[in-house]
Design brief:
The chain is built from 4 helices and 6 strands, in the order ββαββαββαα. The protein is an alpha/beta fold. The mean pLDDT is 96.
Length: 195
């Protein structure tokens, strides 16, 4: 894992699209095609990132369990949203165009873009004590959750799994860090809605 001071905070603003495509995952009738892009100079391989994100969206604990949504990784012009891994300054700029302040630290979902802060992708979060891949799953599940219509939720109770739609980077409020919308038995891990 790189030291935070070695991670670039600004980049070219140009994106490289992963030359990758996959099969549809999930059986939901709402198919959402997505591209994966990485900011040029970020030091992240677009195809490797795309493979990891595809695996997250295909996981049985993910959003396909709702029976509504299915996903397909594409690299062409026809898509529903883009997952973009970018430097903090680029994330701040793009999210800021929609009135969101990501203050160099967090991710956002705006328009047809899921913006992933490079620092979060490479180092995780101090609030999340699981492995880095699990934190990446939380990023993708949380922001894609917004894309498909879910709002923020908060901790449902002491010692319970934090909802994927909880802003866990702001503190767990007694919950246990969790990356997934559903548990292994297909139960939605929910919490009270946050305005």
């Amino acid at each position: 894992m790189p030291d935070e001071e070695d991670i670039p905070t600004s980049g070219t603003g140009e994106f490289l699209t992963a030359e990758a495509s996959g099969e549809t995952v999930g059986s939901g009738s709402t198919l959402r095609r997505y591209k994966v892009q990485v900011e040029d100079g970020a030091g992240v391989d677009p195809e490797e990132a795309a493979a990891e994100i595809e695996g997250i969206l295909a996981d049985p604990r993910g959003w396909t369990t709702d029976g509504v949504n299915s996903f397909q990784l594409v690299s062409g012009d026809s898509y529903d949203f883009e997952v973009k891994i970018a430097t903090a300054d680029t994330v701040d700029t793009i999210c800021g165009q929609y009135g969101l302040d990501t203050h160099g630290e967090v991710n956002c979902a705006v328009g047809d873009q899921v913006m992933v802060n490079l620092k979060r992708w490479l180092t995780g979060s101090p609030q999340f004590d699981g492995p880095l891949h699990e934190y990446r799953a939380l990023i993708i599940n949380h922001e894609v959750g917004h894309r498909i219509g879910h709002g923020h939720e908060t901790c449902p109770g002491e010692g319970m799994p934090a909802p994927a739609m909880m802003q866990q980077i702001d503190g767990l409020k007694g919950c246990v860090a969790n990356a997934w919308p559903y548990d292994e038995n297909g139960n939605y891990l929910s919490g009270p809605s946050v305005p």
